């Protein structure tokens, strides 16, 4: 942050005294890195000393370039980029991306100006070649100089303006690439473990007692299950049941067939204990014929019990 602040201060101090011009810009006593856009809340366009030596077409496209930065909010975007670089200073990819972000910002602004002034392509290119490049960057602002890809910008002036169909095709291509990358990331996820306790397949439902089903009785049993290091139940206890004694045997019998992902300590599987609620739901109205239906299920997220 101090480095960016020093750069900003040196650049601003090197401009000297600014003088307002009739075209709304500000005249500087310096030439390095100008024209440029300064400020966040009230951005100002600063032109170099001797700006009037350029012809009218060149002055028009240079001012249009800087006004394009202001219209798109590029000074604020650059401030956000600088803040991110300060916060994540340790990430080299962010500094690399920020540099190319500034390059793409200039290319995009060039394209907008050329699209609005196609008859001034030559004047725009000549103005780029005549501008003196800055000797230092401007963190919170936009200017033509400082290692911008001048050759690439000049070459871009020879290209025709992208059509609507080309823009639409580019958008589809980007969407397809994002979709393929997302699918590849999803497909490369590891398969769930067959002993994962969150999988209902590892907790098969208990058999519904025939008498309770005939009477359309619903209930709930909470089991405490001791597990060995392989996740196999070694002891099953009924912690509580509603109604008492109706579904206990069915729940205990099913629990002995369950398999769990064992607990781990220091990377090694160890014995443990889990608490598993089992619900029994009778469908239909009480007093219906015995051929009705019922459902029993174990909740797929058993809670571990200390000890």
Automatic annotation (TrEMBL):
CDD domains xref list: M56_BlaR1_MecR1_like
Topology in the lipid bilayer: Single-pass membrane protein
Any one GO molecular function term: energy transducer activity
Entries under SUPFAM superfamilies matching the protein: TolA/TonB C-terminal domain
InterPro entries for this protein: Beta-lactam_resp_regulator, Peptidase_M56, TonB, TonB/TolA_C, TonB_C
BP GO annotations: protein transport; siderophore transport; transmembrane transport
Pfam (any one): TonB_C
Residue ranges crossing the lipid bilayer per the database entry: 168-188
Keyword Transmembrane helix (UniProt): yes
Ranges where the TonB C-terminal domain occurs: 193-289
Subcellular location: Cell inner membrane; Membrane
PROSITE patterns, A to Z: TONB_CTD
Main location per the UniProt record: membrane
Keywords, sorted A to Z: Cell inner membrane, Cell membrane, Membrane, Protein transport, Signal-anchor, Transmembrane, Transmembrane helix, Transport
GO cellular component, one term: outer membrane-bounded periplasmic space
Annotated stretches, region: Disordered: 283-307
Source species, domain of life: Bacteria
Gene3D superfamilies cross-referenced by the UniProt entry: 3.30.1150.10
Function: Interacts with outer membrane receptor proteins that carry out high-affinity binding and energy dependent uptake into the periplasmic space of specific substrates. It could act to transduce energy from the cytoplasmic membrane to specific energy-requiring processes in the outer membrane, resulting in the release into the periplasm of ligands bound by these outer membrane proteins.
Family: Belongs to the TonB family.
Protein name: Protein TonB
Species for this entry: Vulcaniibacterium tengchongense
Record lineage: Bacteria, Pseudomonadati, Pseudomonadota, Gammaproteobacteria, Lysobacterales
């Amino acid at each position: 942050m101090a480095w960016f602040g020093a750069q900003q201060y040196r650049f601003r101090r090197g401009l000297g005294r600014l003088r307002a011009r009739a075209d709304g810009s500000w005249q500087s006593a310096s030439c390095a890195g100008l024209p440029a856009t300064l400020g966040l809340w009230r951005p100002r366009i600063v032109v170099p000393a001797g700006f009037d030596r350029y012809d009218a077409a060149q002055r028009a496209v240079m001012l249009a370039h800087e006004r394009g930065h202001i219209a798109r909010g590029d000074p604020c975007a650059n401030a956000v980029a600088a803040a991110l670089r300060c916060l994540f200073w340790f990430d080299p990819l962010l500094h690399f991306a920020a540099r190319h972000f500034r390059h793409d910002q200039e290319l995009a602004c060039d394209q907008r100006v050329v699209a609005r002034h196609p008859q001034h392509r030559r004047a725009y290119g000549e103005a780029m070649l005549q501008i003196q490049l800055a000797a230092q960057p401007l963190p919170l602002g936009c200017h033509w100089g400082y290692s911008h890809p001048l050759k690439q910008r000049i070459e871009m002036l020879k290209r025709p303006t992208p059509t609507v169909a080309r823009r639409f095709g580019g958008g589809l291509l980007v969407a397809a690439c994002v979709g393929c990358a997302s699918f590849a990331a999803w497909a490369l996820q590891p398969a769930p473990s067959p002993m994962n306790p969150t999988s209902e397949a590892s907790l098969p439902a208990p058999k519904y007692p025939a008498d309770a089903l005939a009477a359309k009785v619903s209930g709930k049993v909470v089991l405490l299950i001791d597990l060995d290091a392989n996740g196999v139940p070694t002891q099953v206890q009924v912690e509580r049941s509603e109604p008492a004694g109706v579904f206990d045997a069915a729940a205990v019998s099913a629990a002995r067939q369950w398999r769990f992902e064992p607990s781990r300590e220091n990377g090694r599987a160890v014995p443990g204990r889990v608490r598993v609620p089992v619900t029994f739901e009778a469908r239909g109205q009480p007093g219906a014929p015995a051929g009705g239906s019922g459902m029993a299920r174990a909740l797929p997220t058993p809670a571990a019990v200390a000890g």
